Amino acid sequence: QVQLVESGGGLVQAGGSLRLACSASRNIFSINEMGWYRQAPGKQRELVATSTMGDNTGVRVKYADSVKGRFIISKDNAKNMIYLQMNSLKPEDTAVYYCYGWLGDNYWGQGTQVTVSS
User: What is the mean pLDDT of the chain?
Assistant: First the structure.
């Protein structure tokens, strides 16, 4: 099992940046995949970015088309943290962002609100 805790959400103007952080309760090297999903009001939860864990060689990263070139997922194995750097934010990026981990089952954080004003 793993507990995930997000931080870093908030209110930002369009064109601005935010960095989300997710702290894991265990060594992320042991987690198969981690990443970020989001859910806007009235919409289904959708993938934002995911990354396989392990060392930097052979890491596979996936981004939603809507965030490619603007968002960057990264990790810090020593701190058991993953991050989502969000640049050039748009109002349509407004959502609750959830940290996700797969370790034989899906694990979710409690979510952090990101609001982008126009």
Answer: 94
CA distances from 27 to 34, 45, 77, 90, 106 (A): 12, 26, 7, 33, 16
Q: Which of helix, strand or coil describes residue 50?
A: strand
Q: Which of 18, 47, 17, 19 is nearest to 34 (CA)?
A: 47
Question: Rounded to whole angstroms, how far apart are CA atoms 18 and 75?
Answer: 16
Q: Which helix (H) or strand (E) holds 107?
A: strand 106-108
Beta pairing class for 112-117 and 10-13: parallel
pLDDT at position 57: 65
